[in-house]
Amino acid sequence: MNKSKPIYLDYASTTPVDDRVAEMMLEYMTFKNNFGNAASRSHAFGWQADEAVELARSHVANLVNCDPREIVWTSGATEADNLAIKGIANFYKTKGKHIVTSKIEHKAVLDPCRQLERHGFDVTYLEPNEGGVITPEAIKDAIREDTILVSIMHINNELGTINDIASIGQLTRDNGIFFHVDAAQSTGKVNIDLSTLKVDLMSFSAHKTYGPKGVGALFVRRKPRVRIEAQIHGGGHERGMRSGTLATHQIVGMGEAFRLAKEEMKNDSKKVSEFHEYFLDEVKKIDEIYINGDLQNKVPNILNISFNFIEGESLIMGLKDIAVSSGSACTSASLEPSYVLRALGRKDELAHSSIRFSFGRFTTKEDVENTLELLSNVVDRLRELSPLWEMHLDGIDLDTVEWQAH
Amino acid sequence: MAYSKKVVDKFENTLKNPEKFNVGRFDPQDGDVGTGMVGAPACGDVMKLQIKCKQEGNKHIIEDVKFKTYGCGSAIASSAELVEMLIGKTLDEAKEIKNKDLVEVLELPPIKIHCSVLAEDSIRQAIEDYESKQ
Predict the structure, then answer these.
(1) B56–chain A nearest CA distance, Å
(2) What is d(CA B107, CA B104) in angstroms, rounded to the nearest whole number?
(3) What is d(CA A376, CA A374) in angstroms, rounded to the nearest whole number?
(4) Mean pLDDT computed over A63-70
(5) Cβ contacts (< 8 Å) between A378 and chain B: which residues?
(6) What whole-number distance in Å separates Cα of residue A355 and Cα of residue A303?
(7) Calpha distance A8→A367 (Å, rounded)
(8) What is the average pLDDT across B62-90?
């Protein structure tokens, strides 16, 4: 094992930029290359930048099978989510003030919804089923006469569970409701075909798909036409939906990353599926573990596991040569355990003991083997230290104990 | 994680060498043993502290201590640190140990102060349990 660099198994939080992407980005910054402003119509510097931006736009559109004119560049998926949700709400507020979303959305969706509630909108937050999935039935029961928007993520970032956006889209379309999908975790992992999906707005991120941080995009459907109120004003770029000089090098990076994603999707998926299967087989040899999220309905690159009777942060500290994330309260600033795991109905202690492993393009078999070896060792040691494990071995049901909570 | 080197070292050493760092259990029924257990699994930390005492004259001296902790890295480090502070002390001296002593020694970040409070409570409980048996 390379001692100087930990093993990276946190691809769901961010991915490294692919070397091929980084090389291309370097061509759009300095004087000796192309540094123009894509909005400069009067000289070749501008034209070249514009050409690069439009080529990148077509790569993004090509991955998800939409018209390039339906792609709006943003600073990332968070901005795309904000633009979609606030943009629809503010444009169509005279039509209705009800929005449907779920409790397992990313904060980039939940926080704009909370903000809209402060401005008089009414938001329904749906519970997932036990497997961590938002069902079309749940949406159907929640929509009302005055519902203007449904915002549901495609793939959950903590669990890797997949929502049926095809069925949900059909339902919203039939009811004349706009449908926004946060697809930050999807690109390059699963096929997305916007020519058949009844999705009106979709958010993308570059840095989850081997592109750079700081750039993303929002798909805004043209047919049937979807209109949004701009959130950033100042020059009317991106058809007035998002002003600001385009970050050419970032956009070129996202375009190339998405072009590669289309090429590499099969290889990437095959590899991570093998790792997923192997990891799962091995990790099941450890006693008292719980897989979070429906295994039959998830992507293989994310694996979320609770190690009962061990607190997640201590497990992460024990696994210091491995970069993973935890649903433990102690790793979050809010001191609350993962709201996603709680929404699944997991007991708080299982939420505290959860670890998310996520694999990616540069993960090796050796990484997975070393992780498993270290993991089983650290789990044993931490359980030896755990009074809860001791009680469990003594046959005490922890639910019957009267705890002195602080 | 904004942990001091002291927390990280204490945690890692405890994990590597649990016996040396007093991880374990005494028989809670033993008349010389006092047990304290505080916290709750739902909150993410539970500390179990056991003291074994001997009487010298009218003083009770903590001869040995064992602990087990479920919790974050600083909760485990706080327990291990506390145990070292306790061995050889009289009960009266042990009662004087405050959570801020642990905060100082381990340089705990503000968000982790509750770990030291939990540790202080666990001694108090263990002493009460021991005293109730005398």
Answers:
(1) 31
(2) 5
(3) 6
(4) 98
(5) 15
(6) 8
(7) 8
(8) 94
- By Cβ distance, the residue of B1, B18, B40 closest to A385 is B18
pLDDT in the model for residue A2: 47
Q: Is B3 helix (H, G, I), strand (E, B) or coil?
A: coil
| Residue B86 one-letter amino acid | L
Q: Does A1 have pLDDT greater than 60? A: no
Q: Tell me the pLDDT tens digit for each residue of B8-49.
A: 999 999 999 999 999 999 999 999 999 999 999 988 899 999
CA atoms within 13 A on the CB side of A307: 28
Residue carrying the six token digits 């997305």: A192
Classify residue A3 by burial, with Cβ atoms within 10 Å: 0-12, 13-18, 19+: exposed
Where do the DSSP E strands lie in A164-231?
178-182, 201-205, 216-220
Going B123 to B129 to B133 to B134, the CA torsion angle's sign is positive
CA count, 13 A, side-chain hemisphere, A61: 17
> Can you tell me the ipTM of this complex?
0.94
CB A337 within 8 A of CB A328: yes
CB contacts, 8 Å: B37 with chain A: 387, 404
- Shortest distance, CA B134 to any CA of chain A (angstroms): 24
